[in-house]
Amino acid sequence: MANPNVETVNASSGKWMLGVAVLLVVAGVIGFYALAQQPSYVRGAALFGGIALGIVVALVSAPGKDFIGFAKESYREVRKVVWPTRKEAGQMTGLVFVFVVIMALFLWSADKLIEWVVFSLVLGWK
């Protein structure tokens, strides 16, 4: 028996529409350069028109609709985030700086200790 929760996806139509969108953008760019003798507003309109039509076709396709749904859901999730106050952000930044200084001192002292052990005790250099 077939599972009613399984969604069948027709990927070929989405890929086809994305291909058309890419071709529209490429046509806009080619039109921009092909109309080199025309005024700049005509060339800009060709470029902008190709890009705009390509974006519209891409957003109307199945992958484009999925992307729009993903973007809306992401925006909803970002609105749920509890952002730190200015005071909390400053305190955490200060804590990070203190930790960085402590780690720098630790690494410097470890480096000097290893240098002293290797060069003074092992190799006998002074």
TrEMBL record:
Report any one BP term from Gene Ontology: protein secretion
Any Gene Ontology CC annotation: plasma membrane
> What compartments host this protein?
Membrane
Does the record carry Secreted as a key word? no
Listed transmembrane segments? 16-35, 41-62, 89-110
Signal peptide location: none
Which Gene3D superfamilies does the UniProt entry name for this protein?
Preprotein translocase secy subunit
The protein's UniProt keywords, in alphabetical order, are:
Cell membrane, Membrane, Protein transport, Translocation, Transmembrane, Transmembrane helix, Transport
- Entry's Gene Ontology molecular function annotations: protein transmembrane transporter activity
Instruction: Return the Pfam families for the record.
Output: SecE
Q: How does it assemble?
A: Component of the Sec protein translocase complex. Heterotrimer consisting of SecY, SecE and SecG subunits. The heterotrimers can form oligomers, although 1 heterotrimer is thought to be able to translocate proteins. Interacts with the ribosome. Interacts with SecDF, and other proteins may be involved. Interacts with SecA.
Q: Which family does it belong to?
A: Belongs to the SecE/SEC61-gamma family.
- PANTHER family in the record, alphabetically? PROTEIN TRANSLOCASE SUBUNIT SECE
| Reported function | Essential subunit of the Sec protein translocation channel SecYEG. Clamps together the 2 halves of SecY. May contact the channel plug during translocation.
Protein name (database record): Protein translocase subunit SecE
Annotated source species: Cupriavidus lacunae
Organism classification: Bacteria, Pseudomonadati, Pseudomonadota, Betaproteobacteria, Burkholderiales
